[in-house]
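FORM 12-B: Structure-to-Sequence Request
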């Protein structure tokens, strides 16, 4: 037991975008419990409660040392009564009884299984549960009509719910790069999402595509998708068109955070040999990187989980593609790198502290009634009066 008087009292700024949050987490037991409760709130379609738990977890992720006593947390932001109760329970007993009982509840398990189907959200899952459907087996047997996304989600359930490794993300990056430069030479592909923040695994792979000449990116997505489809890389895809420039009020103040880029939600078919071999020049010449990539790619899951099933020479991977004009690229890059909470906090900071509106397209200054241009993420942070935070420190 550490003497309370000796224990360090922590201090962190209010907004996650003012903090540097690396992947090194000294309070994983606490943040796992709070994240589980956040996930449960989101699965129950109670986003407000979800955000409160996410904010509390993010504060603990930013601490330089493990928390040993509640008094160290005095004065910290975003720690509500409920979160503090959870923290106290973990500090006193080693685990959170609320998180543990939630994890074991039939409802949580059912919601998690059903929303694990690509194309199924909390509302659909809750509706199914009300109609006695708690498992994939029951769903299949029920004869409920599924839309195209859900059908694909059910068919590729195991692949879509298996973590994607960095090696697999790089292999898909190569395929996307080949597709994009085949249909539009000079176009550029950037890996965004969690992998850009340095995560070693992810639930999907996110890419941002642009062209250095404004306007050349128009109509690019259907061509990329056709190319990928013709090569047999897509198990499912749905493309939504850019409506930002077409909206009636023109490129006026973006009304919501809703993304209006050309976007493709897809499920990729990634062959075993592609997963094993990363053909990027830098990995080919760098023995160490390639060795690590191969280890990741043929690691535990395939051999073990598919041992008693029909072995597949490929796996399914969720991939998101977004096309942005170069004039909005910096905003899109910032908006698609995450984490989700970091993004939310950036927008909250912009609105409450700066009277500005930030989206993945633009930054609007409500006081000056004008857009603030930026060609880099650094410029956007500067407009917002924030110290620049690199992607690897946006893991809030
Ligand atoms: P993951 O994939 O679970 O390992 O983790 P992330 O951080 O890659 O999360 P993901 O893939 O859900 O989203 C990546 C980032 O893209 C996320 O931080 C926020 C952003 N994002 C996702 N969906 C949308 C959207 O519909 N609109 C906008 N503007 N941004 C989005
Ligand atoms: Mg992602």
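FORM 12-B RESPONSE
SEQUENCE OUT:
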């Amino acid at each position: 037991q550490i003497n309370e008087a000796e224990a360090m009292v922590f201090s962190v700024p209010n907004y996650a975008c003012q903090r540097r949050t690396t992947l090194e987490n000294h309070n994983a037991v606490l943040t796992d419990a709070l994240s589980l409760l956040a996930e449960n709130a989101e699965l129950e379609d109670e986003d407000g409660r979800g955000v409160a738990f996410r904010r509390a977890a993010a504060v603990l992720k930013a601490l330089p040392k493990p928390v040993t006593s509640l008094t160290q947390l005095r004065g910290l932001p975003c720690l509500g009564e409920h979160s503090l109760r959870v923290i106290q329970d973990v500090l006193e007993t080693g685990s959170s009884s609320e998180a543990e009982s939630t994890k074991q509840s039939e409802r949580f398990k059912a919601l998690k299984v059903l929303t694990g189907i690509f194309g199924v959200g909390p509302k659909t899952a809750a509706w199914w549960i009300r109609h006695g459907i708690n498992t994939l087996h029951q769903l299949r047997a029920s004869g409920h009509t599924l839309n195209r996304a859900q059908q694909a989600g059910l068919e590729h359930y195991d692949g879509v719910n298996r973590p994607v490794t960095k090696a697999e993300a790089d292999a898909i990056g190569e395929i996307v790069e080949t597709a994009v430069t085949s249909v539009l030479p000079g176009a550029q592909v950037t890996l965004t999402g969690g992998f850009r923040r340095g995560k070693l695994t992810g639930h999907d792979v996110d890419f941002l595509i642009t062209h250095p000449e404004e306007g050349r990116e128009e109509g690019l997505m259907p061509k990329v998708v056709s190319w990928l489809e013709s090569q047999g890389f897509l198990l499912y895809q749905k493309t939504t068109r850019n409506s930002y420039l077409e909206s009636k009020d023109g490129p006026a103040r973006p009304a919501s955070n809703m993304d209006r880029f050309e976007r493709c939600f897809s499920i990729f078919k990634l062959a075993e040999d592609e997963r094993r071999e990363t053909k990027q020049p830098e990995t080919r010449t760098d023995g160490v990187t390639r060795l690590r990539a191969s280890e990741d790619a043929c690691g535990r899951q395939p051999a073990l989980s598919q041992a008693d099933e029909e072995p597949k020479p490929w796996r399914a991977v969720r991939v998101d593609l977004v096309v942005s004009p170069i004039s909005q690229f910096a905003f899109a890059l910032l908006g698609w790198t995450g984490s989700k909470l970091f993004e939310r906090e950036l927008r909250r900071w912009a609105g409450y502290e700066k009277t500005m509106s930030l989206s993945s397209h633009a930054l609007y200054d409500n006081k000056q009634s004008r857009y603030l241009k930026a060609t880099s993420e650094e410029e956007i942070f500067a407009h917002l009066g924030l110290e620049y935070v690199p992607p690897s420190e946006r893991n809030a």
